[in-house]
Design goal:
Distance between the termini: 34 Å
Structural class: mainly beta
Bound molecules: 6-O-phosphono-alpha-D-mannopyranose, zinc ion
Number of helices: 2
Largest sheet: 6 strands, antiparallel
Shape: globular
Order of helices and strands: EEEHEEEEEEEEEEEEHEE
Helix content: under 10%
């Protein structure tokens, strides 16, 4: 899946967000990640294997591309489905920015979830919902997690030169996980035993 489509020309634009679907128009890049696209990222391998038979859609991204130069801003929406792999909530892959000095802002539009952020192997979460803004400072890896029962939709804005560094998240993951413990989203260590 191509991460970037054709860049818009950098002229004034109006973008529309469909409140029901989260779809951004116009979007020059759209991509979807299914469970098979993030194999090994959830703790419960048996639950993952069971779900892979249907390979559920986890999330879609609708992005308005701009030239990848300093000063430009990417704008995109993400629609993250509700669900769990074992006791672990559906989540995005998560990434650092290739340019570590680039921040990001998430604006909640629908649903309820958390943004997990990590620096130096320490994780914290910030709630994301309609009417809230989560600020991801430079140098923090970030991932969103849907803790609700409907799609989590949010708008992201980030510097065009930021880039996505997935490698370290694919190798060692985040230091913490967000799991359902008797109906309550609970932050546990990455290696905590399955409940
Ligand atoms: C947000 C932004 C995007 C990111 C997307 C999905 O919309 O941070 O840059 O691509 O979430 O997250 P990921 O790239 O980690 O799969
Ligand atoms: Zn980012």
């Amino acid at each position: 899946v191509s991460r970037h489509g054709s860049p818009a020309t950098g002229t004034p634009a109006r973008l529309d967000v469909n409140e029901a679907t989260g779809r951004l128009t116009p979007a020059t890049t759209t991509f979807a990640r299914r469970l098979a696209d993030m194999r090994g990222m959830y703790r419960d391998g048996e639950a993952e294997a069971r779900l892979l038979a249907d390979d559920p859609l986890i999330y879609e991204v609708f992005q308005y591309d701009v030239p990848e130069r300093t000063g430009e801003l990417f704008v995109c929406t993400t629609v993250l489905q509700p669900g769990r792999v074992g006791d672990e909530y559906f989540m995005t892959k998560g990434h650092f920015h290739s340019r570590r000095d680039c921040a990001e802002t998430y604006i909640g539009l629908q649903g309820a979830g958390e943004v997990m952020m990590m620096r130096d192997e320490r994780c914290e979460t910030v709630a994301l919902a309609p009417g809230t803004v989560a600020y991801v400072p430079p140098h923090y890896a970030h991932r969103t997690i849907n803790t609700g029962s409907s799609p989590l939709v949010f708008l992201a804005v980030y510097p065009a030169q930021a880039g996505h560094d997935y490698a370290s998240i694919e190798q060692t993951g985040f230091a913490a996980r967000l799991v359902d413990r008797n109906g309550t989203p609970t932050l546990v260590d990455r290696l905590a035993p399955l409940s």
